[in-house]
Amino acid sequence: MGKESRYVAGQFKMRYDYAGPGYGVVGDLEREAIHMVAQSEGILLDPVYTARAMAGLIDMIRKKEFGAGDTVLFWHTGGIPALFEYSRELWH
Questions:
Q1: In the chain, how many domains are there?
Q2: CA distances from 84 to 48, 81, 90 (A)
Q3: Is residue 74 a part of any domain in this protein?
Q4: What's the chain look like in SS3?
Q5: What is the sign, positive or negative, of the torsion defined by CA atoms of 26, 17, 59, 61?
Q6: Residue 57 covered by a domain
Q7: Are 26 and 51 in contact (CB under 8 A)?
Q8: What is the pLDDT of residues 34-89, one digit of tens each?
């Protein structure tokens, strides 16, 4: 069995400044995240949720918001089929 863990709300910092212009609206940051992660890691991000979250993480890294001893977990939540719906917007 795994180790039991308990978390409280104060242990998490919620960020709302990366919500973007609206649901399903793909901006430059999302587009950059999709291309960067696909090229460097071979991982596909959906343009609606996961790319926006990754774009926020990339921006926070660039702003040096994490220290050398920090642990960062990015949880990819799926949504790959949305890439097909947004293909013209993303690749052309």
A1: 1
A2: 12, 6, 10
A3: yes
A4: CCCCCCCCHHHCCCCCCCCCCCCCCCCHHHHHHHHHHHHHHCCCCCCCCHHHHHHHHHHHHHCCCCCCCCCCCCCCCCCCCHHHHCHHHHHC
A5: negative
A6: yes
A7: yes
A8: 999 999 999 989 888 899 999 999 999 999 999 999 988 898 887 777 777 777 77
- Whether residue 75 is contained in a domain is answered as yes
User: Residue type for 35, please?
Assistant: H
- As a whole number of angstroms, the distance between CA 39 and CA 37 comes to 5
The residue range of the domain holding 63 is: 45-92
Q: Which amino acid is at 73?
A: L
Residue of 55, 53, 43 lying closest to 83 (CA atoms): 43
Tokens of 55: 């774009």
d(CA 48, CA 26): 7
For the chain, the distance separating the N- and C-terminal CA atoms, rounded to the nearest angstrom, is 49
Answer yes or no: is 6 within a domain: no
